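My current task is to audit a protein record that another person submitted. My question to you is simply how this chain folds and whether the tokens agree. This is what I was given:
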Amino acid sequence: MRILSVLVAAGALFGCAALPGDGPAAINITSQDVESSAETGEYTVVTVSADNIETIKSYRPLSFANQFRGVGHGGSQVQLGVGDTLIVSIWEAAPDGLFSGGESGSSQIPAVVDESGYIFVPYAGRVRAAGLSVEGLRQSIQKKLVGKAVEPQVLVSLQEKLSTTAVVVGDVAKPGVYPLPLRNTRLLDLVAQAGGAREATYETVVTLKRGNRSGTTRLEDLIEYPENNVLVAPKDNILLSHRPRTFSAFGAVKANQLVPFKTKTVTMAEALATVGGLRDERADANGVFLFRYEDAALVRALRPELADKLAGRGAVPLVYKLSLRDPKGFFLSQYVEMRDKDILYVSNHPTAEFGKFLQIIAPLLSNYATVQRITD
């Protein structure tokens, strides 16, 4: 009778959910109402399956490209500005003209566009340069020399376009201020001019600051997804930062820890192997979850019924659910790539709670048996 009382008391403890746990069980997460979670801004659950794995694999992270789409024009707008350095070459038809002296029969005049936007050319005086194209400046100088020089011919060469620059700083080999040429200049072009990243490309992030607009992406994504390699605009600030990637593992795995990425890509299968795999005595193989903030565009593709609720949103919380109870799950886990700051969680099997219950009452039963033997 006494042992029955002990079991009843312990059973009440078990029934009141007083036993400690490592996190929510699989049934607790999957029972969430996905529609209401998305509506209240909580999270969305997506079960990884053969039907959606191609959508997940082929998704291209282009939020960075979309943020700067249609903005920027790689160098200047072929217009001269303050600080630009020029060479003005002048020829004349007569050998004894104002500019025909010297071996070449012409004069080459270096010039810099001053703070007022002008350059000085002998006998032409101060000539407005800022806001003009190279050809426009050439015609303006030639017109001013008519009547002073003998049939003057003018050539203007742009040496350095210092009026339009961008700044590259951070973990690059040669940080500094870089002039933007007349041709379109893209983000990778400027990073290359700065000597490239000091660390591995997949451990380096690029932040582009343009006025009040700012965006960050992995340097690797500029190469893997060319759309992210946006045009640079004058006065852009570009920061490269070494930021190693990590993911966290919790729940019924053999090692609950923060894990650094040691290779360029890490799949979900490799992540589970890195932390020792699932704990046989506790894990629910049907409840392997991956928590991350995912682009709303991908969530809409995976859950079309949420398109209206996710309209206009950027990154949204998403939980991928994978079952390793089905052998297909092992194949699927090889196609899901981990990302920086992902959280991997393996839920406890319901029987694991009963195992904890037995561990709690075992000392009680042992003590009771000892007392009974002494009494007898």
User: Anything to note?
Assistant: The mean pLDDT is 81. Residues 64-75+165-242 form a domain with the Outer membrane lipoprotein wza fold like fold (CATH 3.10.560.10). Residues 139 and 154 are 8 Å apart (CA to CA).
